[in-house]
Task: structure prediction
Amino acid sequence: MTARAARPPARRRRAGGLGPSPLWGYAMIAPAFIGLAALYLWPFLKTFAKSFMDTPAFGPGTWTGLDNYTGLLGDGDFWDAFANSGVYTGILLLGVPAAVVLAAMIQQISRGRAVYRVLFFLPVVTLPVAVSMVWRFIYNGDFGLLNWALSLVGVPGQYWVADDTYAIYAIGAVGIWMSLGVNLIILGAGLQAIPPELYEASAMDGAGRVRQFLRITLPLLSPSVFLVTVLTVISALQMFDLVFVMLRSVDNTALDGSKTIVYLFYEKAFVQFDQGYGAAIAVVLLLVIMLATLLQFRLQRRWVFYD
Amino acid sequence: MRHSKRGAAAAALAASALVLAACSGGGDGEDVTLTYATWSDDQKPAMEAIAAAFEEAHPDIDVEVQVLPWPEYWSTLQVGAAGRTAPDAFWMLADQYPAYADNGQLLDISDAVESAGVDLAAYPESVMDLYERDDAVYGLPKDYDTNGIWFNKALFDAAGVAYPDDTWTWDDARAAAQQLTDPDAGVWGIAAPIDRQGGYYNSIYQAGGEVIGDDGQAAIDSPEAVAGIEFWTQMQADGSSPTLQQLSDTEAVQMFMDGKVAMYFSGSFWAQRLYGDEAVRATTGVAPLPMGEQRASMISGILNAGYAGTEHPEELAEFLVFASGEEAAVLQAESGAVLPAYAGTQQPWLDAMPEFDLQVFVDAVDYSVPLPIAGNAAEWTGLESEYLAPAWNGEQSAADAAAAYNAAIDEVLAE
Result:
């Protein structure tokens, strides 16, 4: 309190003729706040309200309380979609350790490090639809590059994106590849923050590369790994575009067994005109993402090291 | 230098904003702009020709043709209509139509139709049936499509099989498909996907069955309808068709164009694409669908419809009548893009592709059946592959799959 009481004269001088009015502060954040409110907050509130309504294709809906939510509980498609999103998220999480190892390897390269970063980052800045189209060709069961490569080593090919046994894994592989670039940037930044003296000192004490990685790199990188993990889970649970472009062909029977939660939302709300039901799916997804993120923040105490 | 460039850009931006403001103003004797949303790049030139012809007759009206990508077309339109920013004129399909027509989203153009003296008998009756409403006219058909057999003459010649013709029965089709199949060469006799419009709906009606009965309930489990489904599942069981997986990796039309399948039962709407490829043009023939208990072909057609929330209802109604009228129909026919709906304007379409016997599709109007529509058609047609794929894959009998699908359709219709 005393410290604050001592401050005002200085602050008044700095603020100049504008005065100390708190309104000025609000005015400064207004553009960002109005934008966020109009683009995120308002749609969210509308969605939340709609999730308690029975909505016709057009026009206002009628309040039906929790009907949409109880409908979800008994909807096998909903649980299937959740399971598929879970599997997809699990696959993408496998990409995190791979990204850590890759980032550490790239860090070891003294010349041309940027070239590797660019190569891994390219998929991130490429249009997802274009990427998905190319992967469809690669996965094609009859003429695809992947089956051709497998045939060279005597492995029988599959209809990767036309068979629901494989489709979600095939998509997961593309998802890992597409998210690798961003993960490498975050992890790369984390690696550069580790003081090189630690490696020098440990080398003198006789630590090898593997030991250094496990005892120095991993603990000190753990905040970055945590960030990457949280972001991966959030974005994986929201995956839509890969299913939309890679599985939605004329009559792909693999689509039924591979719909993700956001795809189901799209289908209910925008193909079948049932926006209330779609809104309920979106709200449940929001809750799941919040819970998953909270849980991770809880668990981080056990493994994330902040110095 | 950099500053002046930025200044120029800002000026340009401001200028374009003014232009936009001027365009969206409209009303009081000023120029009116109508937007016309479509989903076909192939048809864009024809649609622009129609817009230009209309602008010539109405110098104060500007028609802007927009091509939206097909996967997003319906969600864009629905969100636009709900948010009151839908395009003025747009293409409408029969399975989407009830949701719009019965919820006050479409402009009633009956006055304009009457004052222009449009003869409604000029449009195919079975297409009009799809869009009929007692008290209003929500647009007029722009085109229609019926089905036939697209076949590869070279593959028929190589296998020594006679070309399909109007004497063909189901048995002929099945036998030919078997004879044409050559696994070593990677050639199949026919493409048998789960395709309602070009495939199993046709055979259901050819067998005397129905998809939706007169009582408004699903009728796809009747013995006749099951026979219609079996026509296709037998082709799969015979090994005369690529599997469903192969057909979802590579579309049937692509397989046909690549010379991998000898027959593709589908719509007149492929004509322009098949004709556009010279190698395909030389080897492609057309024949009527084979005869079951009777002849039948699905018919569908695009409706030129308008948004009820438009700022310019009168001009819009006038444009819609024009876009489905005789002059516009001839423009479409000449482009070869589609078979126009207006009676007597089909000749230029036939003449545009003389190597193809396209008369088959015009003749099919006589025995055509409107695409079955009931309730939330988008929802129950979306369940089709889930329930029918087991029959196509040979894991379930056609009768069992049809019974399960029938129950699922009724469940949606009961909602």
Remarks:
- The interface with chain B takes residues 56-59, 136, 139-144, 159, 161-163, 244, 248-256, 266-267, 270-273 of chain A (CB under 8 Å).
- Chain A has 14 helices and two strands.
- The first helix of chain A runs from residue 2 to 6.
